Amino acid sequence: MSQLKQQILDLQTKSQSLEPNEAQRNTYLNKVNAYANSFLSKIESTKAFSSEKETPHVFKVTDKTKSIEEILELYANEVAAKGINAASGGHLGYIPGGGIYTSSLADYLADVTNEYVGMHYSCPGGVAIEHELLNWMKSIFNFPESAIGNLTSGGSIANLIALTAARDKHGIKNAVIEKSVIYTSPQVHHCIQKALRIIGLEDVQIRYLELDAYSRIIAPDLEQKIESDKKKGLNPFVVIASAGTTDTGAIDPLQDIGNIAKENNLWYHVDAAYGGFFILIDKVKERFKGIEMADSLVIDPHKGLFLPYGLGAVLVKDKEAVYHSNHYRANYMQDAIDDDMPVNPADVSPELTKHFRSLRMWLPLQLHGIEPFVACLEEKLLLTHYFREELVKIGFKVGPEPDLSVSYFWYPTNDANENSFNENLLKELHNDGEIFLSSTLINGKFVIRMALLSFRTKLETIDKAIAMIERGLTKINQSV
Fold it and tell me: At what angle do helices 191-198 and 155-169 cross, to 10 degrees?
């Protein structure tokens, strides 16, 4: 045997552990499955938040191997037990991702088969699944079949794709940038400002619009600001509305804003990352009237469809605007190109290498149907009202009637210390950790925020939250 062949065989032996045999695979899978079952069986009694930090250097990578048992123990103690328990129904702080179990089965299949779904040529079935899901979402929001879309890693990349298309459609570059104007709510998600920096529009002018008592954009203010900017020789080109703001869950007057955008030839973008899928509920569907007027729309299945983190979606009506930024060809890809193929996901996103994330949405919809998802969304609306009613009973003030399932509250002290009292109360609630709540500022007022969107948040969860809040109040009052 030649020396070269021997070297190859020696390396082959060393790398063999990367391909465990069937018995080893079953051992790994059984151990992981046992941990998953244990985690889920205790989820209702596990705290939603722990302020404990990770142990320094515990995750250090070395030449020493660990057993699957050691790895699972480390995961349980250092990952799952610390910070926000995002799988918990008690995660009522930031708008949660879901994490339904059947999506994990999809991810397992996707990882084992390791499909590449950036190009139709490489995985026609995987790309077809993505297109079917996008077509379903087009039908929900009454977008035309000709609209283009992409399943992204989340709302941030989805918003970036939409705003880049708006930039290129309106030719916002070079000296035009500083004279161009974007209009939006002061409660717009901060990924919007981040996206503007990334796509070279940091110097664009942003007009934050006036809000009404329900934190919705006041449409006449938009109209007045556009007119004023035009008189100044500026270049209004985008208006951004929200269908469910992160702070308060507000739905802006989508139809009024859409009409103003159309009259003034503005690109109309709607960020419905949090609230979009509530359109499936008949009794609130009317609140989304006008969303179909948008030039681009963002929705997050990992929010409103309770899927694990890592799945957003964008729909854009102008295909050429999206292609301008994202459609490139490389010589080594010449075998994969055919004009008769469907749109390649890699041609409408910055992402070239693409995880088969569409499977984590398609598989649960096939297994469960749509009805359980709709029921879960409607349940969250009712639980929000119940939570607010129970808070009022124990002396809290609540914000205006919410459009969806995000609201806020505070304990009235009726003195200059009200903000600090509620800050201390939230710290006490975090120390308790049974239920996780967050905070925000509304016109300078510190308020405690509830965001109900976990599929595991049930009636008993809210009752636990009320009991925890009462415990916190008692401790704060005793310390005064």
Answer: 50
Write down the pLDDT at residue 332: 46
Terminus-to-terminus CA distance in the chain, angstroms? Answer: 84
Q: What is the model's pLDDT at position 331?
A: 54
How many C-beta atoms surround the C-beta of residue 12 within 10 A? 9
Q: What is the pLDDT of residues 115-133, one digit of tens each?
A: 999 998 889 999 999 999 9
CB contact at 8 A, 275 and 304: yes
Q: How far apart are CA 299 and CA 271, in angstroms?
A: 7
Residue numbers in the chain where pLDDT is lower than 50: 332
Q: From residue 55, how far is each of 59, 79, 81, 83, 157 by CA, in Å?
A: 9, 10, 12, 13, 32
Cα–Cα distance measured from residue 162 to residue 347, given in angstroms and rounded to the nearest whole number = 14
Which amino acid belongs to residue 235?
A: N
Lookup: tokens for 462: 């809210």
The three-class DSSP label of residue 370 is: coil
pLDDT value of position 96: 82
CA distances from 235 to 314, 433, 475 (A): 25, 49, 55
Q: Please indicate, yes or no, whether the overall pTM of this predicted structure exceeds 0.85.
A: yes
Q: Which position has the token pair 């006490």?
A: 428
Q: Give the C-alpha separation, 158 to 167, whole Å.
A: 14
Look up residue 443 and give its two tokens: 């016109």
> How far is the C-alpha of 267 from the C-alpha of 182, rounded, in Å?
10
